[in-house]
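Issue 218. Parser rejects a valid record. Input:
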Amino acid sequence: MPNLKASGASDLHTVSQHLVTALDGLIELASQGDGSLIRLRAEKVCLDTPGSYFSMLNSKEGGAVDISATGKAACITLETPVKDTNSQIMVCPTGICLAYGLPETLAAIALTPTGLTLSVGPPETGAMIEMTPGSIMLKVGETEFALTPAGMVSKAPLIESSCEETKVSMGPQGISESVAEVSRKVTPAGHALSAAEVAVSVGVSGVTSTGPISSAEFEAAAEVSAVSLTQAADAVASQSAALTNIE
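Output the parser choked on:
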């Protein structure tokens, strides 16, 4: 094998084999200038180290590129850095991550041994979808919604649902339901039901009802017992019964 040494603007050598060995451990190929080029052309090109491997292969079926790294801390990274923008793909033994965007709007896809995670934005306030073999979690800030074989679980500062005139709202102060002019509210103070001019309140202090008309009908007997009982009517009050007992 000849020892090749070139000088001048251009030099071309054709040999059957060419072996380059560096006894001190350094081989450097450099090409300078605006039109500089280093070209390796073969049916197969390999770069091999004890912990990583890169090869380009040509065959009748097509070309192939193989990149591999071994070891617990092994990692293959592809990135195109731009000012303030992250554009990166990482392949590690613990998973695969694809990320792109500005830090405040970073979009990422992560595949791990336990599942798949899609996220956009900061972890505290951004949106996320997390899928595992047994669940799907949707999260935006403090709002979470989970689907599991056992059912659905939601957690949020406020939950609202509506369908035309039917509305349901759940929040820290209680539950509110309404259908047109009919509504029901549940709060720490009790229940409040209303329908147009009729309202009924069931609270810790008692029951209060108001409305244009109030009626009660019993097939057998009715009993009213209280320390103090007041009945008042602005116009007419009537009571009809075969037998009435007042104690």
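Fixed in the parser; the record now loads. The chain has a mean pLDDT of 85.
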